[in-house]
């Protein structure tokens, strides 16, 4: 550390500076108070006049009471409309979910019926083929009939004719069963289509009714807003 010189403070000079600062601040405060006194506002003088419009105090009180009652009814009506709209939305959502589940159940039932029909058709076809195979084996086991045997109509010819008639009856019965199954499946498909059409129409009508109700409620609220002097009573056709 290098050398340094210590200078003692001048107390007299410090006191003079402090006294000058205090005197300057006091002078500014005195000037501010004098300016406030000079610019103080005077007394207000107004010409007396009648206020409150053309209505009396009783009429004004009555109008205020009516407006308060109307605001309470409007708030109550808004709460009721909100609760109704919320319930309607929840019911619509529940109906939509039920319709989806119903459609899934119907599709599953249709799929089960189709599988059952396919199993029945497969079983009948297999039965038909096995019966034909059995009859063909019986035909092969029978001896060839010549013209004399055909003319005499022996027991072999009678057995062949019975087997041929039985085979033809089986074919006709099988064809009849297949045709009945096709007609039944066609009827079920038509009935399912008719039910789906009815459900779609019912959903469309419900949606239109809900939209009409919401529109009517909106028009009622709009009419109540455009008529501020009328007191709204819920349930009263104003």
Overview of the structural elements:
The protein is mostly helical. It has helices spanning 11-38, 57-141, 147-152, 155-226. It starts with 10 loop residues before the first helix and ends in a 12-residue tail after the last helix. The radius of gyration is 54 Å and the shape is elongated. Helix 2 packs antiparallel against helix 4 (155-226). It is built from 4 helices and no strands. This is ESIP1 protein. Residues 33-57, 194-238 are annotated as: Disordered. Residues 194-213 have a biased composition (Basic and acidic residues).
Roughly what percent helix? over 70%
What would you report as the Rg, rounded to the nearest angstrom?
Answer: 54 Å
Q: Which residues form runs of ≥5 with pLDDT under 50?
A: 144-156, 230-238
Largest sheet: none
Secondary-structure element order, as H and E? Answer: HHHH
**What is the number of helices?**
4
Strand content: under 5%
Count of strand segments: 0
Judging from the principal axes of the Cα atoms, what is the shape?
Answer: elongated
Integer average pLDDT: 79
Which class best fits the helix and strand makeup?
mainly alpha
In angstroms, what separates the terminal alpha carbons? 101 Å
Organism: Nycticryphes semicollaris
Protein name: ESIP1 protein
Region (Disordered): 33-57, 194-238
Biased composition (Basic and acidic residues): 194-213
């Amino acid at each position: 550390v290098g050398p340094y010189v210590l200078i003692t403070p001048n107390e007299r000079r410090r006191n003079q500076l402090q006294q000058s600062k205090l005197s300057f601040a006091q002078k500014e405060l005195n000037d501010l108070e004098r300016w406030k006194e000079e610019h103080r506002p005077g007394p207000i003088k107004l010409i007396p006049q009648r206020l409150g419009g053309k209505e009396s105090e009783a009429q004004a009180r009555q109008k205020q009471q009516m407006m308060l009652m109307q605001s309470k009814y409007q708030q109550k009506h808004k709460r009721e409309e909100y609760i109704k709209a919320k319930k309607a939305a929840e019911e619509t959502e529940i109906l939509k979910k039920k319709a989806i589940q119903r459609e899934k159940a119907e599709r599953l039932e249709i799929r089960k019926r189709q599988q059952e029909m396919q199993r029945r058709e497969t079983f009948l076809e297999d039965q038909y083929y096995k019966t034909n195979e059995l009859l063909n084996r019986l035909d092969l086991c029978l001896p060839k009939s010549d013209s004399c045997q055909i003319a005499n109509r022996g027991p072999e010819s009678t057995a062949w004719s019975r087997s041929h008639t039985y085979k033809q009856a089986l074919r006709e019965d099988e064809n009849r069963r297949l045709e009945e199954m096709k007609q039944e499946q066609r009827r079920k498909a038509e009935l399912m289509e008719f039910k789906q059409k009815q459900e779609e129409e019912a959903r469309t009508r419900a949606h239109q009714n809900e939209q009409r109700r919401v529109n009517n409620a909106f028009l009622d609220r709009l009419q109540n807003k455009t008529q501020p002097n009328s007191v709204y009573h819920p349930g009263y056709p104003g």
